Amino acid sequence: MKSIRMLTPENEWAQEIRKRDEKEMRQTRFLPKEHQFTSTMFVYGEEVGFLTSGKEMMGVVIESREINNMMKIFFEMAWSMST
Questions:
Q1: Where are the beta strands (DSSP E) in 1-83?
Q2: What is the DSSP secondary structure assignment for residue 37, as one 8-state letter?
Q3: Are 8 and 21 in contact (CB under 8 A)?
Q4: SS3 73
Q5: Closest by alpha carbon to 9, among 30, 26, 24?
Q6: In this structure, are residues 10 and 61 in contact, taking their beta carbons and an 8 Å threshold?
Q7: What is the pLDDT of residue 2?
Q8: Beta strand 40-44 with 26-30: parallel, antiparallel or unpaired?
Q9: Alpha-carbon span 42 to 12, nearest angstrom
Q10: pLDDT in tens, the chain (83 residues)
């Protein structure tokens, strides 16, 4: 089974999550402080999902190989800048 890679702002919750990475087959990295966000993005298969976590409470899934590939590149750039 593949592990999940998660990028998140560094906070108390995320630090606790990171402690369970090996057990939960996950790799967690913290975003640089100057690049924080409050929404969530999932990249999987040929789809990309976006979820807000504020008052809007909105979600959308886009099924597009091109958008999926673009978001994978953005994720890889962010992953390389994270700790």
A1: 4-8, 26-30, 40-44, 47-51, 59-63
A2: -
A3: no
A4: helix
A5: 30
A6: no
A7: 65
A8: unpaired
A9: 22
A10: 567 888 888 889 889 999 999 999 989 999 888 888 888 888 888 999 998 877 888 999 999 999 999 999 999 998 998 88
